Amino acid sequence: xxxxxxxxxxxxxxxxxxxxxxxxxxxxxxxxxxxxxxxxxxxxxxxxxxxxxxxxxxxxxxxxxxxxxxxxxxxxxxxxxxxxxxxxxxxxxxxxxxxxxxxxxxxxxxxxxxxxxxxxxxxxxxxxxxxxxxxxxxxxxxxxxxxxxxxxxxxxxxxxxxxxxxxxxxxxxxxxxxxxxxxxxxxxxxxxxxxxxxxxxxxxxxxxxxxxxxxxxxxxxxxxxxxxxxxxxxxxxxxxxxxxxxxxxxxxxxxxxxxxxxxxxxxxxxxxxxxxxxxxxxxxxxxxxxxxxxxxxxxxxxxxxxxxxxxxxxxxxxxxxxxxxxxxxxxxxxxxxxxxxxxxxxxxxxxxxxxxxxxxxxxxxxxxxxxxxxxxxxxxxxxxxxxxxxxxxxxxxxxxxxxxxxxxxxxxxxxxxxxxxxxxxxxxxxxxxxxxxxxxxxxxxxxxxxxxxxxxxxxxxxxxxxxxxxxxxxxxxxxxxxxxxxxxxxx
Length: 491
Fold this sequence. Notes:
The chain is an alpha/beta fold. The protein has helices at about 15-25, 35-40, 50-55, 70-75, 80-90, 105-110, 115-120, 125-135, 155-180, 230-240, 265-275, 295-300, 315-320, 375-390, 415-425, 445-450, 465-475; strands at about 5-10, 25-30, 45-50, 95-100, 140-145, 195-200, 210, 220-225, 250-255, 255-265, 285-290, 310, 330, 345-350, 350-355, 370, 400, 405-410, 435-440, 455-460, 480-485.
């Protein structure tokens, strides 16, 4: 007796080939709505759902598969005599396989603010069928992922059911989040899909995998060794920092710390500057660019040992050159200029997680020049570059910058003055004309040290009870001091 497959899919990639494989293996196909039309268009013989239920689609397609003849076929147990009698009495065929994927709620939410459109992309019939089939997994195969398009066998039943329940659970969580009226609801559910297993975690003895939420824009590895845990972590850090800059810019990261940030009129200029900041530390690091990776820049990179390069696009000539390096990971991130992390940041802590709004504010309207010396536009531009760079460094963080490059970086110190000392000591460039940015307020010791090294412009949040002492000392040395009144601690 021919087995029956019910196909109801929004994403139709690969479904024609799979349906043909089922037909070739003596399966009968039932299909609904657009799926049936798509299969028939490609020469696949199907029985339409309305011919099974003897009901037309209702409510402009909102009701298609929500019918006892469908759900009884999915829920019937072959080894249960009463179930089989019910099917026979009501002339219902048992369904052996459900192939179903859902309306793209997440993608609709990401691109549209139209409430009616968003609501219409909440799938009802699909999740109902998936849960029914997964509950009855001993009798019904359920496939919700096109990666599983193959004739199933009994060894796959439980794993397919697990994937099905995970799919409907994550789908419902997204919908619940949409309807939640508060930023921090009493119940927090997080759902991610595994994208890949990783070679190992932070250290070789730690196993690891990469999970992601459903996204519109994804990165694609074009070349190189498989990604590691540290690669993805470093790439994330680089993209976060890079997102602050509109001009052609490059960020170099090593062990999740920036070792060079620079902008320029061209991406080649930005890369040369970023490399010059710390040419030793960049060895074995990763590079992120916000413009196309061209041949000129690739030539300069080809002489270096790098773990990974991420870019919005790459020229054919640049790819041909860099792909000669077998292990170099080349990552394309098409919408790198629009990169944004999720709106909320989650930190794993004892017995749970901390959740906060992500720091997506660079400045507010309260920025103020607090020194007697006023700023030229050129000085403000220098300070803004440094302020963007310091935002994504680990606290306590200090950036020394000039000519759109970070010439000295100090971060991760428990004492802010130590970060200042480190940033100045690490600079391989003359400090004349350089500026300082700090992610938190500082005291007179930092002002004294900057004056000793001819750094005459500083930007910081302010907010200390000793602010006036700092302002007075800056005035004494004829220094420019700007308070942003926005703090950027990062831990």
